[in-house]
Design goal:
The structure holds 3 protein chains of 3 kinds. Chain B folds into 2 domains: 222 residues, Rossmann fold (3-Layer(aba) Sandwich); 184 residues, Response regulator (Rossmann fold). Chain B is 38% helix and 19% strand. Chain B contains 17 helices and 15 strands. Chain C has one domain: ABC transporter involved in vitamin B12 uptake, BtuC (Orthogonal Bundle), CATH 1.10.3470. Chain C has a two-stranded antiparallel sheet. Classes of the chains: A mainly alpha, B alpha/beta, C mainly alpha. Chain A: GO terms for molecular function: transmembrane transporter activity. Chain A: It is a multi-pass membrane protein.
Chain lengths: 289, 475, 325
């Protein structure tokens, strides 16, 4: 691999990692606090993407689409938690099955509404188009760099909220010891609802941001669900730094594999997931269950 | 989840049980009446039908028989010919599927909707471009909808599956849609599978030569999806290009539905003149966008469905990057031939909300349906002897379609014209494939000696290479 | 008890004579697929309902059996019985490997590792041309032929699937009462207690997985004969989930649930399209309803209905017993 090629592949990996991080962080949050494996996460991603596209198409503003996606999927997540998941709280497997059921229904309804067509986003011109990296004289898409910047910003915001605000401290406490948090008198149900909404909202926002990198169409929900699963398993479910590190690891591995042995590269990420689950089920940064 | 956890209060359970009991009895009723209901589907209206949106290929669960159109019918009523259409009315290829149905309807309209006094009834089933579903839907058409003939399928791998399926139903006839994997008729063909459209190799006739001689390309790389149809296309391109002395430096194959081409673009060698790209629909859009953003310098050459009309009509910044790309295929939008022009007019008249120019998918289904209808006409709609008369007549059908003369070879494969095009901007600002060369009477071996051609073996991701082509045919 | 036996006998009689009074389409395209999908779902019921391990890789194992058969008979040109042995061997071996990999995972982690394994196999099948045939898969697969008749002829195949279905069903029911089966159920309920009793929990889990792989492989062979081909689509994520949906709808804890669920599923997907395009929504909602309100599935509901019916009948027939005098 030549040097410019190496740089490009690494950049591809980092920007993909940024995308994975944005998508997977909601999943981690929901699991960390609620211990729910939300297999409808991909559906929320896709729904956010579709809805955001429709809004952007109607209003001409990509930003508005992104914001709308964030709000509508938060709402969806809230409904999901309050309406369905709350009543079977604590039964992990059953909750997972419910989310599978929701994803099946959601995928079909979205297909009915938006069809199987591909939707392309039009992010504002300032962040699209190509860019030439000076020293190496290679071209790189500007939008991918934007995603990288966005992910870093998001990570920093989340870190700040979790480390410095009261809400953040509560969330971290809930991740560590849920029962204790309830015992101390904090309204755990409200916290759960809030976290689910946040997690879902992030998924929806990722739908627009991620959808703008490539495009959005039916089938993306399964793809990003699997990607989130891999990242979150490798990093450790419920661990936010774990998600970040794992996103980088998984994405880089994927991109290098694609560059070096494209035929079987598809297997590598799943193999990574298998290896981690078999040897260290709690992931790199997670706690033993 | 042990049984203790699974119990529920009796009252709640009884309520649900009642509901499910109703559902169960409904199914039982269905079972008793299945096959006896006659709910004939209405003849499709002249305007283009809305695609039936059914399960997408990957996300929701879809069993073996995920159907799209309302059909619970029993056989052809007396004095009726039932033709089943298999096309991708869902997923990424849904637009193509719509075009496919329009093609069949155009052909049927030419015959006034009837053959020898028997009315033609069309039944649509949707596939998702996978061989599994194609097989299932074909079975459904034959066994449940009791069609006489099938027109379809749309994509390469489906064609291979249907060829095999056809062998199990010798008293029915399958006529291709647009599936263009070469092996469907070249290797191990089925005696009741007819293809009046040309295949993926034939669709490249003239392009390799054009790129070498006119565009001056000498070194290329190829990029295609990893299945039968792109294999045919790459082979077709290389067969001409390499024999003239061109070189293919690298071949990239990506799984169908790949959206992220960044790694491919990164690994693309820089010392090439052009990249030959065969991707469909939205994938092509993604690639073109990414390639430009990554600052890709090499020119592009298009496969037949890379720069299909659907892609050209995509909105967005794609347009500027597409102008000038050469391609080849069985149709050319600005073909001056009067037969083409009048066909386009007929299309526009019958489908005012269709595309601005009919696509290759419309053409494929049209010529195949027309071939079938001509065959039916030749036997006066007589399907009584296990369709033997029909199949014999079909093998002899030849006619002048919108793109020129079409006749069948010994494998029931079409010999027809091919067009080399280059993308240009029309007077009203829309992009189209401008015709630059017509290659007449292209057969499946591109005019090369058959024994040497067959010795190349089935086309796959590693076969043929430029060296092998040069060795086999000399350059 | 006697009434249940009577009902079962009646059901069996109906099934056995079905080709005589049922429509050809129903025999060949509804009940036969219901039977072999039921067998694959049965492997999940065994694993999940009795063993407490919910796996999404059952369809993968079934598909591997199909690929094994296809590879041996088409690519290597071997006779059908070698194909059968190869197919079953591949499925069982793969299940053994999967079991070993997943042995330490429980609950949701187990589910996810099976998804990952399923996806690895899917990606492998999609990309590898030499063994798996890539995206096209392996075409032209033929079922065995005996005495001049192909096993996939409609009536023959129906009886074959019925026989195998009944055998596997009987086997699983029988297994539930054996020491191994009881240990399995104990494993589902309380693994820690089981291990304190001296049982090797890991061994039981691996054994259960391997056994389920064998069952799934049987279903997979029937499936590949029915289809005459196999391709990666057969084992994509959607199809993997379908098996779970089937087993849950029928009732995960019941062996008959697998077949009941498969029948309902095949019926809905075949006929619901006559009523609505959104049949996947129908299936999804049914699945959701069952998980939320009646995790015992349709089997549980059927059982409740039956016991209710019996009690009502008894009450009607012998009122004097309930007068409280």
């Amino acid at each position: 691999m030549s040097w410019p090629q190496f740089v490009t592949v690494t950049l591809n990996g980092l920007t993909l990692a940024a995308l994975y991080f944005i998508v997977a962080i909601g999943f981690t949050l929901i699991f960390g606090v609620l211990r729910v494996v939300n297999l409808a996460h991909g559906s929320l991603y896709l729904f956010g993407g579709y809805f955001g596209w429709s809004v952007a198409d109607r209003t001409g503003s990509w930003v508005l689409g992104a914001v709308a996606a964030l709000f509508v999927t938060s709402l969806a997540g809230l409904l999901l938690q309050l309406g369905l998941l709350r009543r079977i709280h604590g039964q992990e497997l059953r909750e997972a099955l419910v989310t599978i059921g929701v994803s099946i229904v959601a995928a079909d309804l979205m297909l009915a509404r938006w069809g199987g067509f591909t939707y392309d986003f039009s992010p504002p011109e300032v962040i699209t188009g190509g860019l030439r990296i000076p020293l190496l004289d290679i071209g790189y898409p500007r939008y991918r760099l934007f995603v990288l910047a966005f992910a870093i910003a998001l990570g920093l915001i989340l870190w700040f909220v979790l480390a410095r605000t009261r809400l953040g401290i509560t969330v971290r406490a809930a991740i560590d010891d849920r029962d204790m948090v309830a015992a101390v008198g904090i309204d755990v149900q409200r916290l759960f609802a809030l976290m689910f909404a946040v997690g879902a909202g992030l998924a929806g926002l990722a739908g627009v941001i991620g959808g703008s990198v490539l495009s959005i169409s039916s089938g993306e929900d399964a793809r990003y669900l699997l990607a989130s699963l891999i990242v979150v398993i490798v990093g450790g479910m419920g661990s936010l730094p774990g998600t970040a590190v794992a996103a980088v690891l998984v994405a880089l591995v994927e991109q290098y594999s694609l560059a070096l042995f494209p035929t079987y590269a598809a297997i590598v990420s799943f193999l990574l997931m298998v290896v981690v689950l078999a040897l260290r089920p709690q992931g790199l940064f997670g706690r033993p269950a | 989840m042990n049984r203790q956890e699974l119990r529920l209060s009796r009252r709640a359970l009884l309520r649900r049980a009642g509901l499910f009991g109703l559902a169960a009895s409904a199914s039982a009723l269905l079972g008793a009446c299945a096959g006896q209901q006659a709910t004939p589907t209405p003849a499709p209206p002249a305007a283009s039908p809305t695609p039936a949106a059914a399960a997408s290929p990957t996300a929701p669960p879809a069993t073996p028989a995920a159907a799209a159109s309302p059909t619970v019918t029993v056989g052809p009523a007396a004095g009726e010919i039932v033709i089943g259409i298999l096309a991708t009315l869902e997923g990424a290829f849904a637009l193509y599927g719509e075009e496919a149905v329009r093609g069949v309807e155009l052909a049927v309209a030419e015959f006034g909707g009837a053959i020898a006094g028997k009315k033609i009834r069309l039944v649509k089933e949707s596939t998702d471009a996978t061989p599994q579903v194609a097989r299932e839907k074909a079975r459904k058409l034959i066994e449940q909808d009791k069609v006489d003939c099938i027109v379809g399928p749309l994509s390469g791998d489906e064609g291979l599956a249907l060829r095999d399926y056809a062998k199990t139903i010798p008293d029915k006839t399958i006529v291709n849609g647009t599936s263009a994997a070469q092996d469907t008729t070249l290797r191990d063909p089925a005696p009741n599978f007819f293809r009046f459209s040309t295949d993926g190799v034939q669709w490249m006739a003239g392009l390799g030569t054009y790129c070498y001689q006119v565009k001056g390309y000498r070194r290329v790389a190829t990029l295609g999806e990893d299945y039968s149809y792109p294999y045919s296309q790459v082979a077709g391109f290389l067969l001409e290009f390499c024999r003239l002395g061109g070189e293919c430096v690298a071949q990239f194959w990506v799984p169908i539905g790949t959206k992220d081409y960044s790694s491919v673009i990164t690994s693309m060698p820089s010392d090439i003149d052009a990249i030959y790209v065969i991707l469909g629909g939205s994938d092509a859009v993604n690639f073109l966008k990414a390639y430009a953003e990554f600052g890709g310098k090499a020119a592009l050459i298009g496969g037949s469905s890379t720069i299909d009309q659907n892609v050209l009509e995509t909105k967005g910044p794609l347009r500027e990057r597409v102008i000038g790309i050469p391609g080849a295929g069985p149709v050319a939008a600005d073909n001056p031939d009067p037969a083409w022009k009048s066909w386009v007019e007929a299309y526009r008249k019958q489908f005012p909300q269709g595309l601005s120019t009919p696509s290759l998918f419309c053409w494929g289904y049209y010529v195949n349906a027309k071939g079938l209808l001509l065959g039916l006409q030749a036997v006066n709609g007589d399907l009584s002897d296990g369709q033997k008369k029909l199949q014999a007549a079909l093998a002899k059908v030849e006619f002048d379609g919108p793109t020129g003369h079409i006749k069948l070879d010994k494998n029931r494969q079409a010999i027809a014209n091919n067009f080399v095009t280059e993308v240009a901007e029309g007077p009203n600002g829309t992009l189209y494939n401008k015709l630059v060369k017509v290659v007449e009477g292209v057969n499946q071996t591109l005019g090369l000696p058959e024994d040497k051609y067959l010795s190349l073996g089935s086309f796959t991701r590693d076969n043929p290479t430029c060296e092998k082509i040069k060795q086999t045919f000399g350059s | 008890m006697r009434k249940t036996r009577l009902l079962a006998a009646l059901l069996l009689f109906l099934l056995l004579t079905f080709p005589l009074w049922g429509s050809a389409y129903f025999v060949g395209r509804i009940f036969t697929p219901a039977l072999f999908f039921g067998i694959i779902a049965l492997s999940l019921s065994l694993l999940a309902g009795y063993g407490g391990m919910v796996s999404l890789a059952q369809m993968t194992l079934a598909g591997l059996a199909g690929y094994g058969y296809g590879y041996l008979t088409i690519t290597l040109g071997q006779p059908w019985w070698i194909g059968i042995l190869a197919g079953l061997a591949v499925a069982t071996l793969a299940a053994l490997v999967f079991g070993l990999i997943a042995v330490r995972s429980t609950g949701i982690y187990f589910l996810m590792i099976t998804v990952a394994l399923g996806m690895v196999v899917y990606a492998l099948a999609n990309q590898n041309r030499s063994i798996f045939g890539g995206h096209t898969g392996i075409l032209g697969i033929r079922a065995p032929e005996l005495f001049g008749h192909s096993l996939v002829e409609r009536t023959i195949f129906y009886y074959l699937c019925l026989a195998i279905g009944l055998t596997t069903y009987g086997f699983v029911r029988y297994l539930a009462g054996t020491p191994f089966g009881l240990a399995l159920q104990a494993l589902r309920d309380d693994p820690r207690r089981l291990s304190t009793l001296g049982y090797n929990v890991a061994l039981h889990r691996v054994a259960a997985f391997t056994l389920s792989g064998f069952l799934a492989g049987i279903g997979g062979l029937l499936l590949v004969w029915y289809n005459g081909a196999i391709s990666p689509t057969t084992i994509d994520l959607t199809r993997l989930i379908n098996i779970l949906v089937i087993a849950v709808i029928g009732g995960l804890a019941y062996a008959e649930g697998a077949f009941l669920g498969a029948l309902v599923f095949v019926l809905v997907t075949n006929f619901a399209s006559s009523f609505t395009q959104r049949f996947n929504t129908v299936i999804g909602l049914t699945f959701l309803a069952i998980v939320l309100f009646s995790p015992e599935g349709l089997s549980g509901i059927a059982l409740r209905l039956w016991s209710l019916l019996r009690r009502t009948l008894l009450a009607r027939l012998a009122p004097s017993r309930h007068t409280g005098l």
